[in-house]
Amino acid sequence: MPMNRPAPQDVRSITCIGGGVIGAGWAAGFLAKGYDVVVQDINAEAEGQMRRIIDSAWISLEVMGLAEGASRDRVRFTTDLDDAVSNADFVQESGPERVDIKQDMYAAMDAAMPNDVVIASSTSGLLMSHIQAKSGNPSRMVLGHPFNPPYLMPLVEVVGGKQTDDSAVDWACDFYRVAGKHALKMDREVLGHIADRLQQAMWNEIVYMVDADEATPEQIDDSIIYGFGPRLAIMGYCLLFHLAGGQGGMRHFLKHFDPSVSDDWTRLPSPPITDELVEKFAAGAVRLQGDRSVEELQQLRDEALVGFLQHFNKVNGKGAA
């Protein structure tokens, strides 16, 4: 074990870079697991938003079950990057999605903290190989991509960059599991990672269908919510299609399914986003929201996720999340 890197189960202090939706969401989840958390943001006004997000998340986290000693009082906010990372056992970065900003930020963190402490990025669209390019010790830098809200959603995609040491990737996976996450160790870097690439393919088709007046935003969301969406929370496409093959499984399914049947079902290239299309989506979103506030919709989402996650853990013999 590298000298300055604690064992995953011995992590006590975590730094979250960025006080926005993702950074503060991470902070809430870590607090609920009993960690001490420092949140850093260059904007001092971000502290208020951070605390509001944590307070909102805490309602659901209490239902899910808090670790012994968990408290919202164990979070500290600072605008000073060196102060934030100097005593961290682990850093979860959720800053702006710009490679130049992240490169400078990682170089600064690298110089201000113990050499072996792992730094993970929440980036959705950048590669760690690019982010770590200007750092003196890139070997301890990994991707740790969550899903929103990160205090409830279990998945974290983990992969290293070209200069990342394998031990840092393994450590990050072990730590996320200790922290109650489902760590998905990727085989190699790919833009968009895994889940976001799948989501993007579906989103492109949604955009096309709305643009062509083949479906409204309301119809599309209904087809997901009341159709294939719930079952995908239990089984992914691969297992579902394996079951669709009956006793012959996936082999039978692939052998007897003619891909040409679905040639006209989708359009994968990204469509142009015209002003007219933007207005269609905007109008549909207003209709979907109705008279509910954003906060009310967020709480509705969280309560539904809590109910699902509790039941899923129960039927899978995992107990409380």
How is the topology of this model organized?
Blueprint: E1 13-17, H1 21-32, E2 36-40, H2 46-64, E3 75-78, H3 81-85, E4 90-93, H4 99-112, E5 119-121, H5 128-131, E6 141-145, E7 155-160, H6 166-178, E8 182-185, H7 195-211, H8 217-232, H9 237-244, H10 249-256, H11 275-289, H12 294-315
Parallel strand pairs: 1-2, 1-4, 2-3, 4-5, 5-6, 7-8
Antiparallel strand pairs: 6-7
Report the CATH architecture of the largest domain. 3-Layer(aba) Sandwich
**Average pLDDT:** 89
Total number of domains: 2
**SS element count, helices:** 12
CATH topology title of the largest domain: Rossmann fold
The best one-word shape is globular
Oligomeric status: single chain
Describe this structure in words.
- This protein is of the alpha/beta class.
- The protein has two domains: 178 residues, NAD(P)-binding Rossmann-like Domain (Rossmann fold, 3-Layer(aba) Sandwich); 96 residues, N-(1-d-carboxylethyl)-l-norvaline Dehydrogenase, domain 2 (Orthogonal Bundle), CATH 1.10.1040.
- It contains twelve helices and eight strands.
- Strands 3-2-1-4-5-6-7-8 form an eight-stranded mixed beta sheet.
- Helix 1 crosses helix 2 and helix 2 runs parallel beside helix 12.
- It starts with 12 loop residues before the first strand and ends in a 6-residue tail after the last helix.
- The model has no long low-confidence stretch (mean pLDDT 89).
